[in-house]
């Protein structure tokens, strides 16, 4: 068994479930129907990866080559929607808590997809192009979220709320550094996911923001 490939698949699935949960919760918040919840969930979990694959010449993108990606996102969305239906409207009584939960899942997915994006570039033969690798990590992490926000007609979070893209850039740079130092992939992936997740949670708690023009 190729343990590095297995680890990458596990990390990718963690990111997909986390982002799919986030997308479904956002869809419920904006009162989308079943199809809308599924569409937003699939988009936030797979959208960034599709654009990434097109950039590195992986055609068709991974989601069209392996049914598991789409299946995981759809099943996750269905479970969240079913839970909301069973609650019979009480879901909206806990909207603040649900938003906090969605933010946690978003931060976890952000870290996992940062790892996936950088490693996808390395696997595609671009290990010497550090700028591209960091960009792929950033795109995989925030691409789906941007599409999600456009679907529900709100300003993308990455452009306005707390530090969002910066933790991904830091995480991608950390992955690249560890890779070039020869660190084990398990240690590298864990460090990057923890770093991105921790920075996002700290930014949320302390309301860190990048400077705005007056």
UniProtKB/TrEMBL annotation:
Its main location: membrane. Pfam families: Gly_transporter (PF03458). GO terms for cellular component: plasma membrane. Coiled coil: none annotated. The chain crosses the membrane at residues 6-27, 34-55, 67-86, 98-118, 130-151, 163-182, 188-208. InterPro entries: Gly_transporter. Residues 10-83, 104-179 form the Glycine transporter domain. It is found in: Cell membrane. It is a multi-pass membrane protein. Keywords: Cell membrane, Membrane, Transmembrane, Transmembrane helix. PANTHER family: INNER MEMBRANE PROTEIN, UPF0126 INNER MEMBRANE PROTEIN YADS-RELATED. Belongs to the UPF0126 family. This is TRIC cation channel family protein. It comes from Candidatus Avoscillospira avicola.
